[in-house]
Amino acid sequence: MAITANRLQRKADPMSPFRTKTRWKEGTYMRLTSPERFATFVFTGQDLKDIKAGKPVPIKMTQRRLAKRSGVSQTTISRLTGATSRPLRSVKPQTAEAIAEVLGVDVTVLFDPETVSETHRLTA
Q1: 0.90 cut: is pTM over it?
Q2: What CATH architecture applies to the domain 28-115?
Q3: What span is annotated as the signal peptide, if there is one (predicted)?
């Protein structure tokens, strides 16, 4: 039996305490509060270096697992951690809520709502 991509994606739980009841206004995006705070929840390249050096590393979720569970690409998660040359600082509210729900935190712990100006472009 083949597993399809739709079966792998986790359905959003409407009763989750981490889903906000806020209806975001048109043109709102969620700006990441800090890549460092986000990295406290997600396994990064620095964690891998620490493991190789024999340093203790707290248990975190891998970027791949977070991506699959939240329905977001792994590239988006990597860019949010600031590990690429083109870091991502803002996402759509639905993306922010999905990530926060999987991590088990309120969306406002990781993201701040802001309105879109003409210079901002949403990619996720």
Answers
A1: no
A2: Orthogonal Bundle (1.10)
A3: none
